[in-house]
Amino acid sequence: MKVDIYTDGAARGNPDGPGGYGVVLQFRDAAGILHEKELSAGYKRTTNNRMELMAAIAGLEALARPCRAELYSDSKYLTDAFNRHWIEGWQKHGWKKSDRSPVKNIDLWKRLLAAMEPHEVQYRWVRGHNGHPLNERCDRLATGAADGEDLLEDTVAE
Fold first, then answer.
1. 25, 45, 85, 151: which has the highest count of C-beta atoms within 10 A?
2. Is 29 a catalytic site residue?
């Protein structure tokens, strides 16, 4: 099954304020009928990059069986990690970047890798705030979650 996953993350007062993520999952069944699911959550204290990662994680963790997934994000942090093969280097060098400094958000990178495990995932970058309807929809979900009252606990991990 092929699934398109659109994601976005947002943070207010980055790097230490509330934030949220938004996800739209889409797939067509055998009859060609489009099915959609929206996901979002807000956190009390987080960063934009953590929310970008959480959006991808939530989208992939929502898949009930192995899929071919196209994951669309306006985060170069997320898409470049896979498309430029940074993540392989980080893992090979004990989660250190090329300058030998530690990779941030290791907890979420590891969770994302685990969420990807049963799937075939391609990362696609889309320009943010540029009129892409599904990216704009995810942005509304993410900012709405960040501004909501039912915020989850999160800590800014380094």
1. 25
2. no
| pLDDT at residue number 31 | 96
How high is the pLDDT of residue 155? Answer: 61
Q: Which of 19, 20, 52, 154 is catalytic?
A: 52
Type and span of the H or E element at 6: strand 2-11
- Selected catalytic residue, list 13, 117, 129, 158: 129
pLDDT tens-place string over residues 13-72: 888 899 999 999 999 999 999 999 999 999 999 999 999 999 999 999 999 999 999 999
Confirm whether 52 is a catalytic residue. Answer: yes
The yes-or-no answer on residue 80 being catalytic is no
Tell me whether residue 147 is one of the annotated catalytic residues: no
Is 9 an annotated catalytic residue? yes
Q: Catalytic: which of 19, 20, 22, 139?
A: 139
Residue 117 among the catalytic residues: no
The pTM assigned to this predicted structure is 0.94
Task: State the DSSP H helix or E strand holding residue 79, giving kind and residue range, or none if neither.
Answer: helix 76-83
Answer yes or no: are the C-beta atoms of 3 and 9 closer than 8 Å: no
Q: Where are the beta strands (DSSP E) in 12-87?
A: 19-28, 34-43, 68-73
